[in-house]
Amino acid sequence: MAEETPPQDPFEMYRRLWGNLGVPLPGMAMPTFDPKEVEKRIADLRSVEAWLNMNLNMVKFSIQGLELQRAALQAMRAAGGGPEAPKKD
Fold first, then answer.
1. Given phi > 0 = left and psi -120 to 50 = alpha, else beta, which region is 30?
2. Helix-strand-coil percent breakdown of the chain, rounded to 5?
3. Distance CA 41, CA 29 (A)
């Protein structure tokens, strides 16, 4: 259920959202002084970075594939051998 009164702190909603996931918001928590914990966080963030880069590359390849498909369709239309362009009303 939704709360009847909004939180007084404008960032409270974000703290609640991210706090449940175990991901601290930058600047919202005390930094850790345990070198092992810092190394673990760096490793975790590097794996997230690698995953995001992989997804970014997949999106780029999809865009390039669609651009090639568009260029091929335009070339076929120009040569008169491809399907007609859809008519706009």
1. beta
2. 60, 0, 40
3. 14
Q: Are 26 and 12 in contact (CB under 8 A)?
A: no
Q: Taking the CB of residue 43, how many other CB atoms lie within 10 A of it? A: 10
Tokens of 48: 């997230």
CA distance 59 to 65: 10
What does the angle CA 44 – CA 50 – CA 54 come to, to the nearest 5 degrees? Answer: 145
Residue 36, phi then psi, degrees to nearest 5? -65, -40
51-74 pLDDT, tens digit per residue, is: 999 999 999 999 999 999 999 999
| pTM summary value | 0.50
